[in-house]
Automatic annotation (TrEMBL):
It catalyses: 4-amino-5-hydroxymethyl-2-methylpyrimidine + ATP = 4-amino-2-methyl-5-(phosphooxymethyl)pyrimidine + ADP + H(+); 4-amino-2-methyl-5-(phosphooxymethyl)pyrimidine + ATP = 4-amino-2-methyl-5-(diphosphooxymethyl)pyrimidine + ADP. This is Hydroxymethylpyrimidine/phosphomethylpyrimidine kinase. Belongs to the ThiD family. Its EC number is 2.7.1.49, 2.7.4.7. Pathway: Cofactor biosynthesis; thiamine diphosphate biosynthesis; 4-amino-2-methyl-5-diphosphomethylpyrimidine from 5-amino-1-(5-phospho-D-ribosyl)imidazole: step 3/3; Cofactor biosynthesis; thiamine diphosphate biosynthesis; 4-amino-2-methyl-5-diphosphomethylpyrimidine from 5-amino-1-(5-phospho-D-ribosyl)imidazole: step 2/3. One of its GO terms (cellular component) is cytosol.
Length: 267
């Protein structure tokens, strides 16, 4: 019997981030992946050259089609683009009593393009964050959510507590953009746990946030606790960045082959 995960996110034509990174991560971690596409981006390793948001009817229909037929063990949410899409996705997830929702608060691509309209941040806070089991903001996203700068571990703790108040059950503030070790902070409302790894000196980090949040969803789909799913996702993203590669002329993608290594006893 397969464990399943649904990604609700944008498409990245270059395959490094978005829906494509999510499905690759699910497959590498042994989970059957499904998708509901919110927006199509024309994108490569150098940047985003076009965005088309899908209309909310077809977004809703994709989610309904999956839930009305298939057991969904976890849901990963990525690029949502605007507040109407946020409201549609939230309503569908509530209607279907979706479990194990991992919300990656995607706002701006590493190459600089806006993937969530600024005026949609309020909708994210009001509608979707309260439905999430785990929210995974990076430093910039955490700061946009809470309204103050998040630049160090102390700020990360303060931000996690504020996001917890918004209604999420667990918060992982990602420290990938801090100098020094790559240290993420998990907060469950009571205690903080750190997940740290040596920083990998690589420019090929296109899709790291997508990969990390999908790996958490894959762990939850397989029945792991949140702590164990975050720990496994941290190992997975570290390997995926270690083996990231120069595809194209810009920021290359992470590499997804954890399960093969794992099965071969190499990791
Ligand atoms: N150079 C790096 N070396 C090791 N881990 C990294 C590196 N960059 C990011 N990470 C890790 O990748 C995950 C995604 O983080 P981050 O890059 O901060 O997110 P985002 O893609 O949303 O900006 C986190 O677990 C973070 O610690
Ligand atoms: C469709 C889509 N979703 C998410 C990201 C964020 O990924 P990154 O921050 O690595 O650019 C992206 N670039 N494209």
């Amino acid at each position: 019997m397969w464990n399943t995960a649904l990604t609700i996110a944008g498409s990245d034509s270059s395959g490094g981030a978005g829906i494509q990174a999510d499905l690759k991560s699910f497959a590498a971690l042994g989970v059957f992946g499904m998708s509901a596409i919110t927006a199509i981006t024309a994108q490569n390793t150098c940047g985003v050259t076009g965005i088309r948001e899908l209309d909310t009817e077809i977004i809703n229909d994709q989610i309904d089609a999956v839930f009305s037929d298939i057991r969904v063990d976890a849901v990963k949410i990525g690029m949502l683009s605007n507040s109407e899409i946020i409201k549609t996705v939230t309503a569908a997830l509530v209607r279907h009593k979706a479990r194990n929702i991992v919300l990656d608060t995607v706002m701006v691509a590493k190459s600089g393009s806006q993937l969530l309209k600024k005026d949609a941040i309020a909708a994210l806070k009001k509608h979707l964050i309260p439905q999430a089991l785990v929210v995974t903001p990076n430093l910039y996203e955490a700061s946009e959510l809470v309204g103050f700068e998040v630049n160090n571990q102390a700020d990360m703790k303060k931000a996690a507590a504020v996001i917890k108040e918004m209604g999420a059950q667990y918060i992982v503030v990602k420290g990938g953009h801090l100098p020094g070790s790559a240290c993420d902070l998990l907060y469950d409302g009571n205690k903080f746990s750190s997940f740290a790894n040596e920083r990998i000196d690589s420019v090929h980090t296109h899709g790291t946030g997508c990969t990390f949040s999908s790996a958490i969803a894959a762990g939850l789909a397989k029945g792991l606790s949140v702590e164990a799913a975050v720990a496994e996702a941290k190992r997975y993203i570290t390997m995926a960045i270690t083996h990231g590669f120069a595809l194209g002329k810009g920021i290359g993608p992470t590499h997804h082959f954890y399960e093969l290594y794992h099965r071969a006893g190499l990791y």
